[in-house]
Amino acid sequence: MDLIKPGFGLVFWTVITFLILLFLLRKFAWRPILGAVSEREEGIKNALASAENARKEMENLQADNERILQEARVEREAMLKDAREIREQTIARAETEAQEKASKIIEKAQAAIESEKKAAMAELKSHVAGLSIEIAEKVVREELSNKDKQLKLVEGMLGEAKLN
């Protein structure tokens, strides 16, 4: 029953021991424990702030990456457009040059044909003139007394003469 009803001395010494223990804890242990808890709290706050900063920086980097990617797409499209224009200009230039060369070749061919035609006509005229002289020579050699004989001679010579 003594435990249920403690004596005055036991309560007194228990309170004194508790107060001494409380004083000692406050003097030596309370500050380091509170300091460690404060440090831990500050560390957690700093870690959360760093994480938030890292998240914001990641968002900024992601936005920058999207912007750079969009710029790269625009630049690629511009380069492709320039390449298409250069290709089209090159093709157009080549077609123009080919047309000019073809026109020059046609002009030269027409000039050659014309000169060959003139040469052939000159040769034909020369040949006809030669035939005419031969016919005139033969007619003159024959006796010119008979008109029927002259006509037969001219017709015979014309039949013999081959025009090319």
Automatic annotation (TrEMBL):
What range does the record give for the signal peptide? none
Give me the segments passing through the membrane: 6-25
Coiled-coil-forming residues are 41-89
List the GO terms this entry assigns under cellular component, sorted alphabetically. endomembrane system; plasma membrane; proton-transporting ATP synthase complex
Q: How does it sit in the membrane?
A: Single-pass membrane protein
Q: Which InterPro entries does the annotation name?
A: ATP_synth_B-like_membr_sf, ATP_synth_b/b'su_bac/chlpt, ATP_synth_F0_bsu_bac, ATP_synthase_B_chain
| Compartment list | Cell membrane; Endomembrane system
| Keywords per UniProt | ATP synthesis, Cell membrane, CF(0), Coiled coil, Hydrogen ion transport, Ion transport, Membrane, Transmembrane, Transmembrane helix, Transport
Q: Which domain of life is it from?
A: Bacteria
Q: What GO molecular function annotation could you give as one example from this UniProt entry?
A: proton-transporting ATPase activity, rotational mechanism
The record, for Pfam families, names: ATP-synt_B
Question: Whom does it interact with, and what assembly results?
Answer: F-type ATPases have 2 components, F(1) - the catalytic core - and F(0) - the membrane proton channel. F(1) has five subunits: alpha(3), beta(3), gamma(1), delta(1), epsilon(1). F(0) has three main subunits: a(1), b(2) and c(10-14). The alpha and beta chains form an alternating ring which encloses part of the gamma chain. F(1) is attached to F(0) by a central stalk formed by the gamma and epsilon chains, while a peripheral stalk is formed by the delta and b chains. F-type ATPases have 2 components, F(1) - the catalytic core - and F(0) - the membrane proton channel. F(1) has five subunits: alpha(3), beta(3), gamma(1), delta(1), epsilon(1). F(0) has four main subunits: a(1), b(2) and c(10-14). The alpha and beta chains form an alternating ring which encloses part of the gamma chain. F(1) is attached to F(0) by a central stalk formed by the gamma and epsilon chains, while a peripheral stalk is formed by the delta and b chains.
According to its UniProt entry, what is the function of this protein?
A: Component of the F(0) channel, it forms part of the peripheral stalk, linking F(1) to F(0). The b'-subunit is a diverged and duplicated form of b found in plants and photosynthetic bacteria.
| Family statement drawn from the similarity comment of this UniProt entry | Belongs to the ATPase B chain family.
Q: What is this protein called?
A: ATP synthase subunit b
Originating organism: Winogradskyella ouciana
